[in-house]
Amino acid sequence: MAVRVDVTLEAGEGEPGPAPALHGAGRPAQRHSSSGRVLVLNASYEPINVCTVRRAAVLILKNRAEVLEKGDWALHAESLTLDRPVVIRLLTYVRIPRDAHRRKITRRAVFARDRWTCQYCGHERGNLTVDHVIPRSKGGPSTWENIVACCAPCNRRKGDRLPRQANMVPVKTPRAPNPAIFIHVAAPTIPAAWEQYLVAA
Question: What is the CATH number of the domain that holds 150?
Answer without folding.
Answer: 1.10.30.50
